[in-house]
């Protein structure tokens, strides 16, 4: 049998091998599942694997003529999906006891798009329960580990997706990003993570956390794969009223343009106390690369940045409180046994079904929305959110893109921050503002610490300028080799 070790390949490279006949889709799937069997006991990225469905799709692809025009953009590429996106016939649990046995009757919009593009869906990945967390330690079912150091967290809430791509048990994955949940785990696992503009990708079939913040995005091994996956999932969907009717450019074509003359802004508020020194040095080295490519680097200010975390944890928890009210044990989901009346059934179902962090956020959000406190908290947070959005609008009058760290620190040890929710929440201090403003942002690998832990560089752009974001990210990637490094498992 041919060598089907795909642990060093990108999705784009695998697709070329499939089209040339060097590999069959069946061999690719068999290779991925062989690697899953080898490393999944260490990494624990998956909540569900669909070997039967993956093999069925592979055989169907192998039976077709090997012509580019007859195959989808993602033909034969093994892809993992975060387990908060609906998959018809496959469990969607959100890593919660509440939805432990829930099987959706329909596919999320992005899953439909993957299937239309001939991707091979291999499984559903672990996450913080209902996507609420920064470390994937809040899952009700298992603890996912960082492939670069299994004693450390992979980031969150899309930690399973990032760990799977990093470990080579998926060549691409989808995550969701409410406050950094695609970019932060991508940075900590040494892969690429893209949060599109709010409205660029349909949220139909994504289990809601914070409806004004949630956005689905690619987690991949390099920028080219991110562009390929975004090409498939982006675009208008009439089933999502917040889905924007904005043309989708050819991302792969646009991203190869040079960056000479582009203005990149360094926000001074992102380089203050709390930033790990090794992370700071890696970002400074990245800035030198961009200078060498002819980009113009300027210092800018985003003055309301210090309020972003507080604003986020009011708005996001308020929306979570409303969105999670539907899990009452009546129509679907977990229902407590032996209850005496409907009030006890509601109460016990939620107490027994939800985990500690989800309960904390529901209570925070309910409090912020309650009579007498709405104006003091939610309304005020909404006003400050507008100020944060205006900060970015003003900054983009002076610069084309913004450059900064993705995470203030490399991956921390498992259990290190569980007893301190505030310290955990500050893990997303650099990623939250992009969600509040609704702008696109990407994290790409830009270095490693002395302990061989990945460091991520974040780029942010104007709304719906993902093409420019990918262009600037790709320019850095062409000059460096950080994205080529793989963990040894």
How would you sum up this structure, described in words?
By secondary structure, the chain is an alpha/beta fold. The protein has a single domain, classed as Amidase signature (AS) enzymes (Alpha-Beta Complex). It is 38% helix and 13% strand. It has helices at 11-20, 25-43, 51-62, 109-116, 159-167, 183-189, 223-233, 251-254, 277-292, 308-323, 342-353, 356-369, 375-398, 421-425, 432-437, 466-479, and strands at 46-49, 78-82, 120-125, 172-177, 192-195, 215-220, 263-267, 296-300, 401-405, 441-448, 454-461. The protein has an eleven-stranded mixed β-sheet with strand order 1-3-2-4-6-5-10-11-9-7-8, with helices on both faces. Strand 7 (263-267), helix 9 (277-292) and strand 8 form a beta-alpha-beta unit. The radius of gyration is 21 Å and the shape is globular. The relative contact order is 0.14. The mean pLDDT is 96.
Question: In terms of topology, how is this protein built?
Answer:
Blueprint: H1 11-20, H2 25-43, E1 46-49, H3 51-62, E2 78-82, H4 109-116, E3 120-125, H5 159-167, E4 172-177, H6 183-189, E5 192-195, E6 215-220, H7 223-233, H8 251-254, E7 263-267, H9 277-292, E8 296-300, H10 308-323, H11 342-353, H12 356-369, H13 375-398, E9 401-405, H14 421-425, H15 432-437, E10 441-448, E11 454-461, H16 466-479
Parallel strand pairs: 2-3, 2-4, 7-8, 7-9
Antiparallel strand pairs: 1-3, 4-6, 5-6, 5-10, 9-11, 10-11
Helix pairs in contact: 2-3, 7-16, 10-12, 10-13
